[in-house]
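QA checklist item 7 of 12: single-chain prediction sanity check.
[x] sequence parsed
[x] length recorded as 229
[x] structure emitted
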Amino acid sequence: MGSNKNKKILVVDDEEDILVLLKYNLKKEGYQVKTANNGIDAVKIALDFYPDLVLLDIMMPRQDGVETCRQLRELKKMENMFIIFLTARSEEYSEVAAFDIGADDYITKPIKPRALMSRIGAMFRRGETKNNPDHLISFGDLTIDKTSYTIMIKDDKVALPKKEFQLLYFLAENPNKVFSRDDLLQNIWGTDVYVLARTVDVHIRKVREKIGEGYIQTVKGVGYKFEMI
C-alpha cells in the first residue's frame, strides 16, 4: 500500500454510488483520488490533478467517455496515463471502439472492487516494467523474462519451448488486444514459413497447460488475447 500513495487516480462516472464505492476502495489501497460525474469536468480536473490512471464510464451526460478519452489522449503531459473504461455495455463493438480510441483496459459493470484493485495494480506494475532493461513482464503471480526465456509462477520456474514462449510474451506485451490466428502466425512464425492456423491453437493449449487457464482468453470467432480473469 505504501507504494500507492504517489499514484493518482481520477474516477469519472455519473452514478454517485459508484463514485463513492470506488473512491472508498481506492483510498483504502493508498491511492490519491479525485472524482468527476461528467467528461467535461473530468478533462478540467485532469489538467490540474495529472492522474496516473483514469477510470472512465462510457455513457455519461454532457460528454461521453469515448470523447473524453480522445481529449485526454491529446494531452501531451499525460501521454503515459492509463485509461480503463468502466461500462454497463458489453457488446463487442463497444470494446473495440474503446481500444481504438486509446483505452488500456475495458471492464464491464457490475464492478467487483477486489478484482478491479487487482487489475489496477497489475496495470501499474506493467507500466513500471515497460522500460525495464531486463524485459520483465509481470501479471499477478506470473513473471516473464525475455532475456533469459524464463517463466516464473510465484516461486516456481516453468519451462516453455521457444515458440510457446514467444507466443506468450507477444500476447502479454499487448494485453487486452485481440489477435487473430493469422496475426499471431505472422508475428511469431513469420511470413516465410508455411504454418497452419491450427498450429496457433495447439501452442495456446500447451501454454495454458503449463501456466494455467486464467491468462490467455479465447475471443470466439476472432482469436486470442492476454487478460487475467
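[x] summary fact logged: The chain has two domains: 2-129, 136-226.
[ ] second reviewer sign-off
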